[in-house]
Specification:
It comes from Frateuria aurantia (strain ATCC 33424 / DSM 6220 / KCTC 2777 / LMG 1558 / NBRC 3245 / NCIMB 13370) (Acetobacter aurantius). By secondary structure, the protein is of the alpha+beta class. 40% of the residues lie in helices and 26% in strands.
Length: 182
């Protein structure tokens, strides 16, 4: 019985960890940066098309936004792609407009911008976070993630309610087993 409980706890931990990673990937993040430039690259299913990676199927153009943190210590690169009706559901249809805004922000090297994005930068897999919006700002601090906080509170309340219901169900089940005549 101890082995089954241990496996159940490990499985529960794995599910919670997977859910946390998934939420971290799809929920919006904010970064305050100086936009340094923009570019458009041709990509296919294997990544950026180049001499080392020739196109072997359908290709598309992807906008990129290059940036640097206000302290100048960290570079950031974002893709700027429409999500349309696909997952995650940001319903972004204005990538070209965002690219024009990014080009405008790059003209003034002193102007800070808040980039709202989702996703991770994984250098090993050549993946970039997707910029959902670019907004000029004067503050070097990122805005507080109210949506993420509210969603996390709601998820924790629902998880607590579910744990309470399961605990009550287990107690009733144990009590009914003990009340049965042998």
């Amino acid at each position: 019985m101890k082995v089954v409980r241990r496996i159940a706890w490990i499985a529960l931990f794995a599910v919670i960890a997977a859910a946390a990673l998934g939420l971290n990937y799809v929920l919006p993040h904010h970064a305050v940066v100086h936009v340094t430039g923009t570019e458009v690259k041709r990509v296919d299913k294997d990544g950026i098309v180049s001499a080392e990676n020739p196109a072997d199927g359908p290709t598309r153009d992807v906008y990129f936004v290059n940036a640097i943190t206000p302290d100048g210590k960290r570079t950031r690169v974002f893709t700027n792609e429409d999500t349309r009706f696909g997952f995650p559901w940001y319903f972004k249809f204005d990538a070209a407009d965002q690219q024009a805004r990014a080009q405008s922000l790059a003209q003034n090297p002193e102007q800070l911008a808040v980039v709202t994005y989702y996703g991770w930068r994984l250098r090993m897999f050549d993946t970039f976070p997707n910029a959902v919006s670019l907004t000029p700002t004067d503050s070097p601090t990122a805005p507080f993630p109210w949506f993420n906080t509210a969603l996390l509170v709601i998820v924790l309340i629902l998880a607590g309610y579910l744990a309470l219901r399961i605990n009550r169900w287990r107690k009733r089940r144990t009590a009914s087993r003990q009340a049965r005549p042998s």
